[in-house]
Amino acid sequence: MENLRLFVGTVCPFCKRVEKFIEDNKIEGVELVNIDENVQAREDLIEKGGKKQVPALDLGDKIMYESLDIMNYLKTKGE
User: Fold this and answer.
1) CA-CA distance, 27 to 25, in Å (whole number)?
2) N or C: which end of the chain has fewer CB within 10 A?
3) What was the pLDDT predicted at 58?
4) Strands 63-65, 4-8: parallel, antiparallel or unpaired by DSSP?
5) GST N-terminal domain location, by residue (predicted)?
6) Are the C-beta atoms of 19 and 64 separated by less than 8 Å?
7) Which CATH entry fits the domain spanning 4-78: 3.30.70.1490, 3.40.30.10, 3.40.50.720, 3.40.50.970?
8) Whole-model pTM above 0.90?
9) What is the DSSP string of 7-70?
């Protein structure tokens, strides 16, 4: 899978759901970036996606929100 960035938050249950999905399915090539710990990453997310909602998957040309959509995307890309 291509290198992707997944923006997450420290106490976000939906982020934890996606992180567990990635771990359980041994999905590689997804960099986890915590916007609570990395101010520049938060600014990048807001600039690119227009909001600081997490989880958010950076697809290069757009940002994908919603944990179920992200998990479905990662599942289909990994097949």
Assistant:
1) 5
2) C
3) 96
4) unpaired
5) 2-79
6) no
7) 3.40.30.10
8) yes
9) EE-TT-HHHHHHHHHHHHTT--SEEEEETTT-HHHHHHHHHHHSS--SSEEE-SSSEEE-HHHH
